[in-house]
């Protein structure tokens, strides 16, 4: 492969099925990289090529990040491996950096067949399916072929080491970084009007895919258990997913449909975050939770569950309140505390904003990735 001095040529690769946390992380990471040391590009496997993906792609290309798309026809697509091998041999990347299982499997194999010097993978979630066969065996086989693995939290690192039996010396935690967009945020009052939430009503906001992992059913069950605030709190659950209809039926069965809104995907969530009183994030497991950083950036106090990586992101009692998962009574109590105490809300929001700046800097995140790249290349050179 190429030995010409200059920036490290790093190809990032991920299967796209929408724009959510890992995609937001990629955009933040690639646009923050030190271009004197790294020349990043992105390969999108599959994808819907809808308006959201086109916006995502345009933002990267405007920042000077080359973006390529490869169709993926099946979960295991041998033809894709062949196409990637030919493309890698033509493009001669120094590092292939994969994200999520489909990219790990296809690009990882293709990179080895093409002779790419270094293969790196980032693990973004402690999905339960990774503990079951055949995925667990696949993870173990991939771990042997991957030079370095990056996990986005220490909790996820422990999970990954347990399911993959990887060499711990090759697994590094790099926390997400987040910088708010520079353009003006949507108007909070307009966001409330668009959602038909009355002025002055307390507003609980949840943001995330409508899937079992996110625990939105527990949030709906918590709402009737809350104290009788005046006026009554409203709830917005923003996102799309396979449990959308089930959650809407549950809200109706609980008699909540009059003050619960499901707006679907919201392109710019900042307006609702600024309109909301508290962010609720009752996840059952969570690789990181980028929405928690978005809440901190928008001065929004947090009530979340103490699972997986969330205690690494939300300092319990300082930047948010944490409760046990699958416990609507505890969730209702924590939400009650935040809604009833303005000084508590202000303190959580202020400390959250400062924690965001101190701990979750995107510049720090990008610099730590470069350190991993350089160390992996040095190790690969020594091995050769």
Describe the structure.
The protein has 384 residues and is of the alpha/beta class. It has helices spanning 21-32, 51-62, 78-91, 101-114, 135-145, 154-164, 188-194, 216-222, 244-253, 270-275, 290-297, 310-313, 328-340, 342-359, 362-383; strands spanning 8-16, 38-46, 67-70, 95-99, 118-123, 148-151, 171-173, 203-207, 234-238, 260-264, 278-281, 302-305, 320-323. The chain is built from 15 helices and 13 strands. The strands form 2 sheets. A 7-stranded parallel sheet has the order 3-2-1-4-5-6-7, sandwiched between helices. The protein has a 6-stranded parallel sheet with strand order 10-9-8-11-12-13, with helices on both faces. Helix 1 (21-32) packs across helix 15, helix 3 (78-91) crosses helix 4 and helix 11 crosses helix 14 (342-359). The longest helix has 22 residues, at 362-383.
Brief account:
The protein is α/β, with parallel strands linked by helices and 384 residues long.
Count of helices?
A: 15
Q: Which regions contain 5 or more consecutive residues with pLDDT less than 50? A: none
β-strand percent reads 15-25%
Report the C-alpha radius of gyration, rounded: 22 Å
Reported for the largest beta sheet, the result is: 7 strands, parallel
Helix % is: 40-55%
Mean pLDDT: 93
Overall shape: elongated
CATH arch. level architecture of the largest domain: 3-Layer(aba) Sandwich
Number of domains: 2
Class by SSE composition: alpha/beta
Strand order of the largest sheet: 3-2-1-4-5-6-7
